[in-house]
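Researcher: Hi, I'm a grad student and pretty new to this. My advisor asked me to get structures for two proteins we've been looking at. I'm not sure of the right format, so I'll just paste the first sequence and hope you can take it from there.
Model: That works fine. Here's the first sequence with its structure tokens right after it:
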Amino acid sequence: MTHPADLPPPPAWYREPVRIGGLPMASRFNLAPLAGYTNLPFRLSVREIGGVGLCTSDLVNARAILEGLKRTMELLATDAAERPLFVQIFGSNADEMARAAAWLVAHGKADGIDINMGCPVRKVVKTGGGSSMMCDTTGATVALVRRVVEAVEVPVTVKMRLGWDDDHLTAPFFAREFEAAGVAALTIHGRTREQGFSGGVNHDGIRRVVEAVERIPVYGNGDVRSVADAARMIDDTGCHGIALGRGALANPWVFRQFDAWVRTGDPGPRATYHERLDFMRLHLRRLIHWRGGEKYGCVQFRKVATWYTKALRLPKRTQAALVMLENLAQFEELVAPFAVEPPPGWSEYDAQQAHVAVPAGPISHW
């Protein structure tokens, strides 16, 4: 367990403002896209806690944007309170990607465009999108990215892995090429496609990407769930900032702690039990509003209920009921016994530990 007194100080230059393209960021710590999770309700709720530099949407299929599919339009819901917002798009057709990016900007959906080159999921890879794009160093991938950059007047970023496998670590090559093409920033997940979400994050691989560019910021990503983890990644890689996905779902207050650490050297207090309970309630209410009714909002909430209930140490019968939640009244009835005092076994420090609330199995982490 790392206590504030044991934390190294942040690099002095981390206190300096950072820009992505022409956009100033409030901090160097971003919410990374997580398909199915980093939707408007969660992004808004995290923003209100504070410390977030940039939020990025769920990944969105470029072709589905052009076809105006209803579910895709729901994913593109945004609010002034969460800006700046980048929308992450995926696809393998350069024309579709460029037109989708232009549509997003023209309709006020995005302050920037993020191109997905990291998703390892088979249904994305088999279409030529996601991490499969890292296999083509002959020019097509770079040409696609350049088309998107030229199609919009907002910053374009790329999120990618280190490469397809350990024998094909193409990220440094693409980093140089993308900077030359006009990309404004990069986020590097420190694993290969072959690794999926298993094995350790390769900090040396991230450092090689940082060293490959001349001007643009490179954000490190992967297995950062605490200020101590962030300090290690920064020290090992020299990255200009950090993007968090699953770590932010486990501990939405981590951005506030990062910001305090950079400003003062002390991450400050962890979330209290009642802050966690209130955040869970707020998230549920926003999901219900976003999905247009209790039925669909509760179905969406079931995906995150396990993480919340484990962090709060709620009894197993309560956990089981919340992952099958049907309406808001049922939620209030289930949590009412714990609204005054935490359940036995809960402790403020223990609830912050990474293994408590981070999903154990693979999720669509893009």
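Researcher: Oh nice, that was easy. Here's the second one.
Model: And its structure:
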Amino acid sequence: MAASDLFGISSQDIDKNVPIPYHYQLRELLRDEIASGRWGVDQRLPSERELCEAFDLSRTTIREAIDALVNEGLLRREKGRGTFVAEPKITEKWLEAPDSFTESMQLQGYQIETRVLNLSVVPATYNVSRELRLRSTEPVIVLDRLRLILQEPVLVVTSYIPERLCPNLVNEDFTYQSLYKVLREKYNISIARAKRFMEAVAANELEASLLHVRQGAPLVLIESTAYLEDGTPLEYFKARHRGDRTRFQVESFKQVISR
């Protein structure tokens, strides 16, 4: 079966009379087929040669369109097997309340697996003490975790909490329980607000090994400080999410003042 028959699109859908690059037009056509569900998860794409023939385009143009969709996480390449439609990205929601990653995922029906890489008490570094408003080298609890969804690693996160606020936290097992839930239920501590920064970074050797990606692969770095109602900093964390498996939903609200 021709590639155009598989997709429901053909070379006629590439408009060669407009100044829009062919690779961009093809990328958007393929993106629409994937988004509509007409091209399902794990379905194999035709070969580059078949796509060249179907759309009357050069191999360079075909490869540029496919590469863009692979980089976005819509397609995945498997060595020796071809290119396939990837699983949809996992959405982490940032709404009004600063919920934990676990709570955000559970609300969407995902089962979370956590591997605790480190749980210990260490002197605060300059950056950590600045964010948590601590004295230099004041003890903090550091918690390193690898988070998995559907047995696939999606993020690695390091949290820092002042030891004086919850000294026994270092004895907890976070394999099966959320940090925020433990803070609420065992320490009567609730987060009131959080500031968060997001930026793109490249995976280093350790992150690549933990997240099962190549070194230098795109990650989304989330840096956050959470505060209690009185403004006391409770947690500072740095989380590195796989760029090919995660996206973020942010909602803003306008405060309406009644008269």
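Researcher: Is there anything I should tell my advisor about the second?
Model: You could mention this: Strands lie at 75-78, 82-85, 90-94, 112-123, 139-149, 152-162, 193-202, 218-227, 233-242, 246-250.
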